[in-house]
Amino acid sequence: MKNTYANWKFINGTLLVALALFLVNTAFSQTIINKDPRIEAAVNEISTDNMRENVSGLLKFHTRHNLSSQNRVDFGIGAAATYIERKLKEYAKSDSRFTVERVNYKAGGAGTRLGREITLTNVVATIKGNQSDDRVIALLAHYDSRSEDNADSTTFAPGANDNLSGVSALLEIARIIAGKEIGATIKLMFLSGEEHGLLGAAHMAQIAQDEKWNLIAVLNNDMISNSHSSDTDIRNNSIVRVFSENIPFTENEAQARERVFNSAENDSPSRQLARYIKESGERYTENLTIKLIYRNDRYGRGGDHTPFNRKGFTAVRICEFYENYDRTHQKTEIRDGKQYGDVIEGVDFEYLRKNTSVNLSSLMNLAFAPYEPSNVSTNVSSLSNYTEISWKVPAKGAKPNGYYLLIRETDSPVWQRKIFVKGTEIKIPLSKDNYFFGVQSVSDNGNESLPVFSKGLR
């Protein structure tokens, strides 16, 4: 039996209160937030003291410039890689599924930003998921740093915010999820080479493609702890940005025609991931608004998510809302009574805690969720003020407890309504011309998969 508005009271035994709410004046509607206790407990474990300790510990190495020493124990990028590896191995002791590896690669050469060929190191922690789950979720943070002169490998270049903030967030997440059963495989990538052309990320993206990882989401954390803007002197630690590409770099001609037919310029997989992070992150993180920025990254600058986008993976960047240009890549000194340089005093650890919570909650919610539904489609073969949407049960993994039909007006940046459905089709009294639709799989505990945009089927 097809689900229709005529029998909305019960759809396969499920009360569709959400649809009734959708059809009334939203000024009087309420938002009900259901939290998974496992995720809430993990978020409550986040410690600013731990993150401060790791930022301070890595600052002792003076610089993490890609051309700095790799052999000294007290100076340079090699010492930083060893520190990160040691911390991860400490966390791995409690979990046989937790492995740590160094991934070395050649970089640079004549005519490049590095000037000569060197070997650089990515440190990668892998927490294996269930045997029946081949999905991979990756969190990224680059650990290299630089000062004003891109070629200066000896000047003090603390990089406390850019990007020990991301590094300390990932280390804290590694500590918390060690020993926890969370479904999908998690990869925490501590990347070198970012300051000289996203080199470490490009190497890992190539590995992911060559080894055919089922990499469903990449969250790049780069500069997530500064809450004080230069120039405008704004102080605000209650808003963070998520950057996402609109039209995928890898789109082919057939996909372009499909996108144009569905007016789906704002519904790339990376946009769906960004919306997912906003919903999951705000669900578990109080006093924080996640702002969706509909750009791949900032003007003239890039991040480690981009090489993954260019290989066709779903990837976004999480970044502070207000940047401080007196700190990033500046020589560390006091001029005219003002502090310059990326020092620890510019790190807002409460803000960093909240942004770490966004990552952890989104990661766990997605890892706990079922696989996505497939073949999500809107019937556009006839004219009607009803809309018929259908989908297929995921081909892999446990069968979902049900699905959410997602609805938003065409000018809305986020999904506005959810209707829980037990079956795999629904007919609703809303015109397909006036709304966008998507579908998520839902677990017994309410964990949602990434949304799948509903495409017109003639």
Keywords for this entry:
458 residues; 24% strand; alpha/beta; Immunoglobulin-like; eight-stranded mixed sheet; four-stranded mixed sheet; Aminopeptidase
What is this entry, summarized?
It contains 10 helices and 18 strands.
3D architecture notes:
By secondary structure, the chain is an alpha/beta fold. It has 2 domains: 5-32 and 373-457, Immunoglobulin-like, CATH 2.60.40; 38-368, Zn peptidases (Aminopeptidase, 3-Layer(aba) Sandwich). The protein is 26% helix and 24% strand. The protein has an 8-stranded mixed sheet with strand order 1-2-4-3-5-8-6-7, with helices on both faces. A 4-stranded mixed sheet has the order 15-12-11-18. β3 (135-142), α5 (164-177) and β4 (185-191) form a beta-alpha-beta unit. α5 (164-177) crosses α10 (349-368).
